[in-house]
Design brief:
The chain is mainly α and 114 residues long. The longest helix is centred in the middle third of the chain and has 33 residues.
C-alpha cells in the first residue's frame, strides 16, 4: 500500500532549499575539463593533498608531544619544521591565487576534506 503523505508548505520549502543546496554543491564540485583550466585544477588538487598531509603530520606531532615520546630538542625542531611548512603553503597559495576554501574538497556524502 502506498503512503500518501501530504507535505506542509514549510516542509515543501525545506525540501526545495535542500534540493537547491545539493544542486549548487554538485555544480561547484564539477570541473570544467578543458586545456585552459587543467593546469589550475591539477595545482588545486595537489595543493589540497599536500595541505591534508601537512595537517595530518601536525596532528600526529601533537600526539607525540602530548605522549611525551619526544625530547625538548626534537619538539623544538618539529615545531620549526611545521612552521616552515605552513609558511611555504601560505606562500604557494598566494602564488597560485588559492584560498583555504579552494583546498577544501567536497567529498559528497563523506563531507568536506578538511
Amino acid at each position: 500500500m502506498k503512503d500518501n503523505k501530504i507535505l506542509s508548505d514549510s516542509e515543501l520549502q525545506e525540501n526545495d532549499l535542500a534540493d537547491l543546496r545539493n544542486q549548487k554543491s554538485s555544480e561547484k564540485s564539477r570541473q570544467d575539463l578543458n586545456p585552459e583550466n587543467a593546469e589550475a585544477g591539477l595545482t588545486q588538487l595537489v595543493m589540497s593533498v599536500v595541505e591534508l598531509l601537512r595537517r595530518l603530520t601536525e596532528k600526529q606531532a601533537m600526539q607525540r608531544i602530548d605522549g611525551g615520546s619526544l625530547t625538548e630538542d626534537e619538539i623544538e625542531k618539529l615545531g620549526e619544521t611545521l612552521m616552515k611548512l605552513e609558511n611555504k603553503m601560505e606562500e604557494l597559495k598566494e602564488h597560485f591565487n588559492l584560498t583555504d576554501e579552494d583546498l577544501n574538497l567536497d567529498l559528497g556524502p563523506l563531507g568536506d576534506l578538511m
